[in-house]
Structures are given as C-alpha cells and as structure tokens.
Amino acid sequence: MKKVGFIILLSFTVLISCGKFPHKTHRLDFSHAMLISADSDTSALRQKSLEFFQEEIARRTGITLPVQQSASGIQAPAIWLTTDLKTLPADFSPKKQWQTAKDTLGHEGFLVQQVLWAGHPVLVVAANTNRGVLFGLGWLLRQANWGKGVLQFPSNLAISTRPATPIRGHQLAYRPLSNTYDAWTLRQYEQYIRDLIVFGTNTIELVVSARGNPKDQILMKQPPDKMNRALSRLIHSYGLDVSVWSDAADGDYRDPAQFKKALRLRERWFRSLPYIDDWFVPGGDPGHQPPEVLFAFLKKMALLLHRTHPNARLWVSNQGFDEAKNKVFFDYLSRVKPDWLTGVVYGPWTHLSLEEERARVPARYKIRRYPDITHSVRCQYPVPHWDRAYAIMENREPINPRPVQMAHIFRLYRKRAAGFVTYSEGVNDDVNKFVWSALGWNPSEPVKQILTEYSRCFILPDQAGKLAKGVFDLEKNWDGPIAKNTGIVSTLQLWQALADSHPALVRENWRFQQGLFRATYDAFVQRRNRLETKLEDRVDSVLRKASQTGVIRALEQASTLLQDRPSDDEIQRWEKQIVALGNRLNQTIGMQLSVPLHHAYNSERGALLDALDVSLNNREWLTGVLRSIDVLGDPAARLKAIRKVVNWEDAGPGGFYDDLGNAAKEPHLLPGKGWEADPGFVESAQDEFSGQPPQRLSWRDQAQTLYQTPLKLRYTGLDKGARYRLRVIYTGRFHATMSLTANDSIVIHGPLKQPRPVVPLVFDLPKRATRSGTLVLTWKRLSGRGCQVAEVWLEKR
After folding, report:
1. DSSP letter, residue 616
2. Alpha helices (H) along 153-255
3. Is the entire prediction scored with pTM above 0.90?
4. CA distance 442 to 339
C-alpha cells in the first residue's frame, strides 16, 4: 500500500457523551464512507459482521456503505476492519496501539481509533477475532449521529476495551408464557439479537421443554421445535453462544421408566438443535427432582449431550431446594466433583444469598447468575416499597425500565459470579437488558451514558438526552407513595412533548411507544387512585353518620356510592390513548397487553389493558360487608357492625396498628438488611402483593420474609403496667404454617396454619412480654416459602 501520510486526530481516550455529542466535539461526515475488509478474511462471521453493519446503517439512514477488500486508493472516509496486524502500515498509529493492546483484548475485545489517511478520516476497528470486530462495530453504532442521508461520527473516537464479565446473556424464550416473543418471526428475533450485540451481549438462551399445551401456541408463526432449530443457527451465525434452558419437570425420575423416557427426549433435542454451547437445567421453578436423582439424571444426560455437542457446557441450579436438599446438593459437588458439570446457576427462589451460595459451591465450579429482570412483584427482585395501586393495576409484567435499580443489583454481586443470563418474558424489560449488557462489558459505565446511547441508537439521536431523562423519570414514578409523587404528570408531559414534536415515533418506534405508554398509564393510575380514594372517603363519612341519619338510610347511601365508577375528562382521554398505544405495541413488536385482544397468557403476564377498570379502593369488600350487615335484624347489631368497619384500623387508646405490605403504614416492621444490601430480600422483609378481590385491600398485601428469615415487629414506649392483646390477619399466597414468639422467649402460638377464609386471630399477651416497655414479635416459617402477615393490632386492654 502506498503511504500518503496520516494525522492522529485525538489521543487514545474513550469518548464519553451525554445526550447530544459534546458541544466542542467536531462531527465527521461518513455518509459517503466505504467499509474496508483488507485482511483477506472471507469467513462467514466476517461477512455476517459486514452485513450487520451495512444493514443497520441503511435502516437508520438509507445509506448503503460499499465494501472494499483493499485499502489502496482510499477516495472517501472509511471504516477499516481487521484481525490481522500485518494489514496495517508499519507506522500507522492504530497498528502501534494494537501492538500494545493486542494481548489484553482477549477473544472479545476491540480497538477503535480514528486517523486521517490519504486526506480522509478513517475509523480502524481492530480485534483478535471476528467476534471482537462485531462488538467494535456495535460500539460504533452507539456513537453514531444519524438521520435520513446523514451518518456522522465524532472526530475524537478512540477506545481499547475488553469485557469485564465473560458471560453476558439474555433468555429469549419462544413459548406461550412470554408476553412478546411467541408472536415474533425469525426476522424479528434477528433484529432484537442484533440490538443486543450492539451493547455487548454474547449469549442468547432458548427454552426447550416437554411441558406446555399446543393450544396455547395460537400466536406462533411456526412450531417451537422448528423455531428453536432456526434460532440455534441464527445465534451461531453471529458468533454468539447458544444456551438452552430445559427443566426437569416431565415426570418423576425416581421411576426408571420415566427416567429413561426423559433421557430419550433430551437425546432427540440434542440431535435436533444444530448448535448448543450451554445447557442449563434448573433444580426447581419448575422441577421437583430430589438432588441425588437429579445428579444421576444429569450425569447420563451429559454423555448424550456430548455425543452430538462435545464442547457443550452443562449447568444446574438449586432453585427451590430447602436446607436438607441443599446439603445433599453441595455435598455431592464437594465429594464427587463431577467433571461433566461446568457450574451452578443462581436463580429465583434460591434459598441462600449469593454470598453463601458462592461460599458453598466448590471453587472449581463457576456460578452464573440468572437474574429476574422482567417482573415487578412476586419475583426475585421486586420493586422496593411499590405503591399498592401500581401493584394492583400494573401487576407483575408491566413495561418496567429500572435502570438505577438494575445497575445496583448488577454491581452488588458482580464479583461473585462469572456472568449472567437474565430471565425475561418479553420486551417489557427491554431497557433492563441493555443496562445489564453494557455493565457486563464495563461495570463502571455511568447509567446516564448507557441510556443516552440506547436512546441515540434505537430511537432518535438529537433527542437522546431528553429520552434518557424520560426513562429515568419512569423509574422515579414508582418511587414512594403514588399520592405524594408530584413527578408523575411531569414525566408524562416530557414524553407527550416528544410525541407531539415527533409523531413518526408514535407510529413506528416501539421503544418510544413503550415509554409513552408507561408514562400515560402511570398518570392514569395516579388519577384513578385519587378519585377512588375520595369515593371511599365519602362512603366512610356516610357510614360514620349512621347513628344520626339512620342505619337503613346510611347503608342505602353507601351502597349507591359504591356502584359509582369515578371518572373525569383526563381519565377518559388517557384511557383512549392507553388502548391505542397498547394496540400499536401489539402491531409493532407483538406485545400482548390484553388476554381477549392480544392473547396474553393470563392477567398477570402484562395484560395492562384488561386492568383499566379494576377497583383501587375497598369497593368489592365493602359491598359484601354491607350486604351482610343489611341482613342483620337488630338495628343495634347493624350499628355495631358499621362501627367495626369504619374503625377498622383503630387499635384503641394506647394501641398500635400496622397495615403490613403497605410501605406507608408499617412503622413497627423491622426491615432486616434492607433493599440496598439485599435487593432479593433473602434476608430482609419486603412488601408482597398477592391477594385478590373481594378481599379487603389491607389483606391483598403483606409483609413477607423468605425461607429461614424471620419476620419481626418491634414496639417501644409501651405502658409497663398494662396488659396487651394482639390481633393479626394471616393471609398470602404461601399459605404458610408459622410460629410466633415474643422477645425470643415467650411462645404466643406454636405451629399455626394460615386460616381459610381470612379471619382475625386474637392472642392475649402475658404481662411479662411487655413489662420492659419494649416488645419484639417474631414469626418463623415452619412450612411454605416464607412468613406472610397482613395486619397487626397491638391493643391495650
């Protein structure tokens, strides 16, 4: 190659940009650039990398960058790809930098440096492998300023980088349980995988299971086995690792016949999938095989797996194992030291903290995280102190960008695992995936930068700063009591202003549609909650006057009020917008926001359109109670029953009340380690939402602790000479059997199963329990997943 001369445009530093490119950064025009692949690499992955970059640029700009196999005679700006040091000129600055960094880049790292060569700006993307080249091109897409006919890069691009986390993956399961993926075509999968590559994802996990009903496959474009075969090829074609999640829930493996049948089925799967790099079998969630039986099965299965995929890695989890099963599990690993096992996966419903898990797993085995980033309640990492109104209406799988919380969860445990493959049920967690992938590459990368690059790359470059703020604000919408959150309407105003000025985004860009949908839905929930609270206050006022107005009249007035569905112009306008946006999201990305309209799997799987009219007050419970009061013949009995309703939370003079599960009304709850130190609440108390109407609202959420962690309340300032009585409501989905002690020594009750139906339980406390002026109540789980308590009254007798 003839040397024409070059100028280094900037020292070898990493560009850090927020919102728009820094004001003083000069942008270079690459709209007429060429792609140079000058190292004679004709491998499939190099060709796929070129195709990926060409098509992603063309999709954003309408520009098709030509590919040239030689760097001679450069007549325009160029992007030069290479894995061969010899293809760069001897005194070429990127060559010198690559010589220095080459040994540190590893298998996935890359170098990008911009120089002026032959009078034209040239971006060099160099790596040891084509996977590194692919990630380098993805990083360039994150830096690009683009528009129709516009492709620009800052003049100061220079980076040498390798990922800090070896395993950076996401589960994209083609199954009916998903709120999105089962509606996708192979092309939609490919686009989403490309998007993840841009932020450094190197593993995609599929799901293969014997469970499931073919009748639930109504949205699928092709049968699961056929799609999984195609996805295996597709993922491999991009040089990524193909992981497979497959439960052991198809029978009882203690039965030899079922054991053999399950092995034959796995062998068929192994032969069916053309590429398998990792195979993961959860011990539970689902699955109930005893650990000794599970290990015997996995040993046989590993032999079959390695016949067709000799280099495949095998993983297992101890999800759902109690201490007895965990002892067998860890003893097997320590004693037998199976060489066919790669490592242990730490996933939802693991009874141990990740710290204890790492301490008990032999060092020879890796730990891979399986974080649930897709759910907001009843999950591994629930939203801390979530308001009850959100939990009722937005439920388990809303659109849930939680960038700050996800970054905290990632960083807190990063050093205890070799990486992650996140658990996802659709694109409701889209932002969370990209936060995890970006931090998996660079754990110190600011979340603001991640969101800015996400917005620039996938939505609109010149509004990236505002869009990033909009995502941050969506997370803040869920912070604290909804009634006091003054930022919810301003969040909607930000998203609505962007929608008004860029209507094409509302029509075409599903990521923007998601942000606008969530902002509108949050404001809708807040407004409905305010009106429904006012309605219940009116009912309460009517019932409190029953002794003056007459019991019959008060019951009639209250019952009439409870039939009202409060609304106003804002609510009606927002509801129309929510339905329109929900239907558009179904069209653009396959989100299933309704069971009857979009075939969502069930009400908790993201079906937010079906929750627009659910009650946020005690309507159903009060209606039933008032009917039961109405049939009482004695007016005095009616009045007494009404007083019980309106004074429900009154613990009497010198008494205390806690509505456990309601963050605003549980002053005596001892939190334990707390969310910051324990976001999985393995050793802390959390607010749980698991009840259903017509239960009273205070029964539909509970304070909860998991597994062996006790649930505790602490009272101070008690009357040392008084006697106290305890009233409690036990309810929740765990249906636990619990014991209760006072001050760690006084038994209040022994093993007691949650009563059905829900009824208050009353216990007289011995005077010695409170004579110090301080009382600590401790519930311990004896069966079930954990302790759950909904309401507690400590009444002075």
Report:
1. S
2. 186-198, 224-237
3. yes
4. 31
pLDDT higher than 70, residue 232:
yes
Cα torsion through 735, 739, 740, 743, rounded to 10: -140
Radius of gyration of the chain (CA): 30
Distance CA 606, CA 455 (A): 23
Q: Is the pLDDT of residue 683 over 50?
A: yes
What 3-state DSSP class applies to 231? helix
Per-residue pLDDT of 328-349, as tens digits, reads 999 999 999 999 999 999 999 9
- Work out the pLDDT band at 282, boundaries 50, 70, 90: very high
What's the pLDDT score for residue 271? 98
Q: What is the mean pLDDT of residues 193-206?
A: 98
How many whole angstroms separate alpha carbon 161 and alpha carbon 220? 40
**Which distant-in-sequence residues (6+ apart) come within 8 Å of 201 by Cβ?**
168, 169, 170, 193, 240, 433, 437, 440
- Alpha-carbon span 35 to 53, nearest angstrom: 9
Q: Strands 167-171 and 120-126, how do they pair?
A: unpaired
Distance separating alpha carbons of residues 245 and 241, to the nearest angstrom = 13
CB 622 within 8 A of CB 648: no
Q: Which two tokens stand for residue 728?
A: 């409690």
* Residues 547/639, Cβ–Cβ less than 8 Å: yes
**Which residue, among 376, 349, 318, has the nearest Cα to 786 in the 3D structure?**
349
* Residue 249 to residue 183: CA distance in whole angstroms: 25
Q: How many residues does the chain have?
A: 797
Strands 701-706 and 761-764: unpaired
CB contact at 8 A, 323 and 294: no
User: pLDDT (tens digit, 9 = 90+) per residue, 389-446?
Assistant: 999 999 999 999 999 999 999 999 999 999 999 999 999 999 999 999 999 999 999 9
User: Per-residue pLDDT for 594 more than 80?
Assistant: yes
Cβ-in-10-Å burial (0-12, 13-18, 19+) of 628 comes to exposed
User: Which has the closest alpha carbon to 369: 248, 243, 208?
Assistant: 243
Report DSSP state, residue 414. G
- Strand duo 791-796 + 724-729: pairing: antiparallel
- Amino acid present at 231: L
* C-beta atoms surrounding 444 within 10 Å: 7
Q: Rounded to an integer, what distance in angstroms lies between the CA atom of residue 753 and that of residue 756? A: 9
End-to-end CA, the chain: 96
- When pLDDT is averaged across residues 111-117 and rounded to a whole number, the result is 92
Secondary structure, 3-state, 341-367: CCEEEECCCCCCCHHHHHHHCCCCCEE
User: Can you tell me the distance from the alpha carbon of 381 to that of 412, in angstroms, rounded to the nearest whole number?
Assistant: 13
Average pLDDT over residues 583-612: 97
For 409, residues 6+ apart whose C-beta sits below 8 A from its C-beta are 371, 381, 679
Of 477, 475, 567, 471, nearest to 527 by C-alpha is 567
Amino acid at 234: L
Q: What does the pLDDT read at residue 538?
A: 98
Residues 6+ apart with CB under 8 A from 631: none
| Helix extents (H) in 164-203 | 186-198
DSSP state of 428: G
Q: How far is 49 from 131, CA to CA, in rounded Å?
A: 8
